[in-house]
Design a protein that fits this description.
The protein is of the alpha/beta class. The chain contains ten helices and nine strands. It is globular. Fe (iii) ion binds next to loops.
């Protein structure tokens, strides 16, 4: 039986716990995982900082820096060698979608494609009406700073998010550059902080339908990401009930991802993923 943790971070992640990736992998082995995908945050495009309008402290620790790339590949190779007879490890990236930086992202993906597998495309930043980017998962304060007006009419914000996700899958990244859409409802990370409605409107579910259609054409998987369950103001899977139902109707495959940034998070919530097969 194949058992995959398909979304994990490493000791090199600047906002992680710094715990040894080898210990994370050993926990995965103990839990019976047969496959482990390293998907570290890819370096943000050079020049992005100039258009980032949120708290500079947040973005500083968002991803690997460009000079960490060699260390990341070396770490991946070392772990593959060490555990090759116990678990299959792949090395890839979680890549940020940023609408003004598609060229940079494509160039990066093309450069690393030969050495990577199971890359994820994720939306962690949205552009406000004035053209500045804000992180949507740093803090309630940053989300409010960027999109406070839309929080009072949150389907607007959800729409802004899904339009970005749609663009992220429509873009041509090159063959097999991207395998999966990351946590496709991350915009709900602070839903219980702001008391937001948990359901997406019909307009938004139509957008979700468009995203899933492209995913189907391009044979992308969806991240069955359990991290939101453990976020104090999310308390739900990424994605939740509505998107899971629609994706299953279309037969789009999910892949479990703990999004672990430390040892105790590896494999977290896996049993919920098994519900998909048993229903
Ligand atoms: Zn992270
Ligand atoms: Fe992410």
């Amino acid at each position: 039986m194949i058992k995959i943790d398909g979304h994990t971070h490493t000791e090199l992640c600047p906002h992680g716990t710094g715990e040894k990736t080898s210990l994370m992998i050993e926990r995965a082995i103990r839990l019976g995982f047969t496959e482990y995908h390293l998907t570290e945050h890819a370096p943000l495009p050079v020049g992005f900082l100039a258009n980032y309008a949120g708290d500079p402290e947040n973005v500083k620790t968002a991803s690997l820096s460009w000079d960490q790339l060699d260390d990341y590949f070396a770490l991946g190779r070392r772990l593959q060698r060490k555990y090759h007879d116990r678990i299959k490890i792949t090395v890839g990236f979680e890549v940020d979608y940023l609408e003004d930086y598609e060229e940079d992202i494509r160039a990066f993906l093309q450069k690393v494609a030969p050495q990577t597998a199971n890359n994820i495309i994720s939306v962690h930043y949205l552009k406000d009406s004035a053209g500045g980017y804000y992180g949507i998962d740093y803090s309630p304060a940053e989300l409010k700073a960027g999109f406070g007006d839309e929080l009072t009419d949150v389907q607007q914000l959800y729409q802004r998010y899904f339009r970005a996700v749609l663009a992220s899958v429509q873009a041509d990244w090159g063959a097999k550059a991207i395998a999966k859409i990351g946590h496709m409802s991350l915009i709900k990370k602070y839903q219980d902080y702001f008391g937001l409605p948990t359901d997406f409107s019909q307009i938004n579910m139509n957008l979700v339908g468009q995203i899933l259609e492209v995913a189907q054409q391009k044979k992308l998987k969806l991240d069955f990401n359990s991290a939101g369950l453990y976020k104090p103001y999310c308390n739900d899977l990424y994605p939740g009930r509505q998107i899971i139902a629609q994706a299953r109707q279309l037969g789009i495959p999910f892949e479990f991802g703990s999004d672990a940034h430390g040892v105790s998070e590896v494999g977290r919530g896996y049993h919920l993923f098994e519900y998909l097969d048993k229903n």
